[in-house]
Amino acid sequence: MSEGILAGFGLIEGSAFVAAPLGGMTLAQLGADVIRFDQIGGGLDHHRWPLAADGQSLFWAGLNKGKRSIAVDIRAEEGREIVRALIEDTGNLLTNFPARGWLAYEQLSARREDLIMVALTGNPDGSSEVDYTVNPATGFPWATGPRNLAEPLNSVLPAWDVAMGELSAIGLLAADRHRGQTGQGELIRLALSDVAFAMVGHLGRIAEAQLGGHDQPKDGNYLYGAFGHDFITADERRVMVVALTARQWRALVTATGTGEAYAAIESATGHDFETETGRYEGRDLIAAILRPWFAARTLAAVREGFAGTGVSWGPYQTFHQLVEEDPRASIANPMFEQIDHPGVGRYLAPRSPLDFARLGRLPVQRAPVLGEHTEQILGQRLGLSGREIGGLHDRGIVAGPGTPG
Amino acid sequence: MSEGILAGFGLIEGSAFVAAPLGGMTLAQLGADVIRFDQIGGGLDHHRWPLAADGQSLFWAGLNKGKRSIAVDIRAEEGREIVRALIEDTGNLLTNFPARGWLAYEQLSARREDLIMVALTGNPDGSSEVDYTVNPATGFPWATGPRNLAEPLNSVLPAWDVAMGELSAIGLLAADRHRGQTGQGELIRLALSDVAFAMVGHLGRIAEAQLGGHDQPKDGNYLYGAFGHDFITADERRVMVVALTARQWRALVTATGTGEAYAAIESATGHDFETETGRYEGRDLIAAILRPWFAARTLAAVREGFAGTGVSWGPYQTFHQLVEEDPRASIANPMFEQIDHPGVGRYLAPRSPLDFARLGRLPVQRAPVLGEHTEQILGQRLGLSGREIGGLHDRGIVAGPGTPG
What we know:
Two copies of one chain form a homodimer.
Chain A: E1 10-14, H1 19-28, E2 33-39, H2 58-63, E3 68-72, H3 77-90, E4 92-95, H4 105-111, E5 116-121, H5 131-138, H6 159-182, E6 186-191, H7 192-202, H8 205-210, E7 227-232, E8 238-243, H9 246-256, H10 259-269, H11 276-281, H12 283-295, H13 299-306, E9 312-315, H14 319-325, E10 336-341, E11 345-350, E12 355-356, H15 374-380, H16 386-394, E13 398-399
């Protein structure tokens, strides 16, 4: 079995919640040796929902797969020195802890000049912010929901944290490339609000607002600027149907036999459904013609009717339906494996979505138990003797697995 | 001015819509030389909404900043040969076009053995899928929306496309590092459904469903597993307030003077609001106590009252309010610059959110006009003479800017 495309890349991670852990895990699942350090007893995310029946965090287990764990008393100077020595040894640090005091770049790089450090913050000024407080500011919650709803609606997926986690990995790899060429390290700052507002800009929403466009109103499950809508099937399932391109539109019209109806509507209204703008402006008419077609068919019949037609569509699924009905979320998909989570049970866990034709994908490694690798790391990476490690344990500076959290 | 941390990294991009263009742009904004090739007249995303008043796509302009553009007839063998020669010259290809036939890895790598190619698809079997059809399958739309809403709700932000774009950049950089060490190229396949379902797994939702947990019900703007909720202010604005950690909870209680009320509720109900689970289970009670505090204050008074307290909160903003009221989305934030978009006007455009302490951030470069760099690229990269380039123009194999789209 291959070592993974990032074999030899080491990273120290001091983190909590989604973005920093996801950034580290993304690299760990590509073969990097990622050591997450935590306060003895666990960090702020150690009990984050969803939880297993025994209270263990399925969230923590999901976002720390393939890492090694060291538990250290980072409130004590002796514990901090252990973390600093690991950072010096590894040369790469990813953290969403405050990058000051004992974790200031100036201090750390004084010991290792070519250090690469990615420091995540809420806002560019270093103040705090989480996905759930940044998202309301982006504009998207006011554009989400049924047409006549008077309230903004948050995203349940922490999408900005996800984007930030991936960007932190990009920053690390880009700086590693630069260090390879120049020998220079880097401090990279990344703010969650910058990640979010940059994306609002990239998607054209800032320009639209500044150039006098109206704010996109809440529009249910209609897609903005072309045709896309949801429909109820005969067995009371829901499906989403999209005609973003002219080819998708023609496929949809052909598969549902609605060509004559649409020709009549185009001629009566002047809409041109061959164009994206025409489909967007005529979206209520398009949906009204399609609705009976779906209402007369079960989800299975829709699936059969659209197979091989080029129609762009998909079923709505609950989390349960995803794991019970969708072969893409099963071991039929080589991305997924069943893993054992100590004390919790077996469940499906994903490898990296990146599939390397030559090197393959690394097998899933479960998340560590907190402190699982404390002794191994102190011995291997810092060269401490068993006696020295025992002393650290005795003084409460480090902890192995099984320490109450 | 620095060249950027990815100076010297070249990429050919054959793309449309969000993921592949975003992946290429993320690298371009770090200094990579990214050449996007398009069919003469523009690709499928050339007129994607939002649009400017003159019909130009603000979406296209947003997702292609800092790239160079070559317009080629990729339906003609002679045009395809130009693209293949550019790929051979550059050694890196990112595409969401079908990776077969003239764009098959086997063909391309026969000409450049160490080629790195990232091939994006909808599903792992190569079939098509877009963000708007994958998202319904993930489970999130059934967990989004007001409590008693009977329908699923899509995300307006194409979050899976965003994650896929960033992951494609990670794949390119990881493979580039590996090539530097081994001389080997790679073909990397990445499917949108894998990106989405892996994230559902990373966040613990697959394990929760498989281990017998219930599906998280729609719960308005409550945060899952701790306390977070939205409130209306005296001036009819909305704010989101979060108490994910015990410290945030204590700050909120102190700032709003609700300590006595919560102590009474804890003693009456048995909830322990010091724990995440306690705050989640008592979320309706917590919100009911806080509601009058916000109703009695304007947004400005809330902002003043929370300043320096450690309360985690933020205002809801429309896209307009974001650009009109939020200094983080203005040139007061060094991430943003005003740029000129030919024929459209001036608006705020973001640099990379990654801020490099040593190298700085590159200035924003607007998106190219389609075909703006056709002649430059043919001359510089392929060494064609003016006469040869003129011949390609005459035969309609390439086009410069200004060709009707």
